Structure formats: structure tokens, C-alpha cells
Amino acid sequence: MAEIKVEKKDKSSIWPWIIGIIVLLGIIWFLIEAFGEEEPALEEVEVEEVGDASLFQPEHSPQALVIDSFYEV
Fold first, then answer.
1. What is the pTM of this model?
2. Residues 28, 34 contacting (CB under 8 angstroms)
3. Residue 8: helix, strand or coil by DSSP?
4. What digits encode the pLDDT tens for the residues 6-39?
5. Helices and strands: H and E segment counts in the chain
6. Based on the number of CB atoms within 10 Å of its own CB, is 18 exposed (0-12), middle (13-18) or buried (19 or more)?
7. What integer is the mean pLDDT of 46-55?
8. Alpha-carbon dihedral of residues 6, 11, 12, 13, nearest 10 degrees?
9. What's the rounded Cα separation, in Å, for the pair 45 and 52?
């Protein structure tokens, strides 16, 4: 009977690890996009012209009308 020599491979390939990490990152990205918090959509509003725009010049407007931020907390 013939003798068959079996030698263990010294180095394994790194490509399965790289592909596995890329797939895992893709799944994580998909889950974050699917279930993550969405920014609220801005609503469109209609604007009516009410008259003279000179009333809204800085020298005529009180400090209470100054808007610091358009987003509510």
C-alpha cells in the first residue's frame, strides 16, 4: 500500500476575514439606516404678503422678535 503524506498548511488566507468584516460592516450600516433616528422633515408653509416690509427693518423691530435658532429643542 502507498503512503500518502498529509502536510498541514502553515498560513491561512486572510481574504475570508476581509470579506467577512466588509459584510458585517454593511449589515451594521443597513441596520443603523433602517432603525436610526430620522431628522424631522421641515414643513412648507404658505406666506401671505401683508403690506409694507419696512416695518421689519432692524431699527423698527423689538429685540423680542430676533430669532436665534430655527430649530426647537
1. 0.40
2. no
3. coil
4. 888 777 789 999 999 999 999 999 998 888 777 6
5. 1, 0
6. exposed
7. 68
8. -130
9. 20
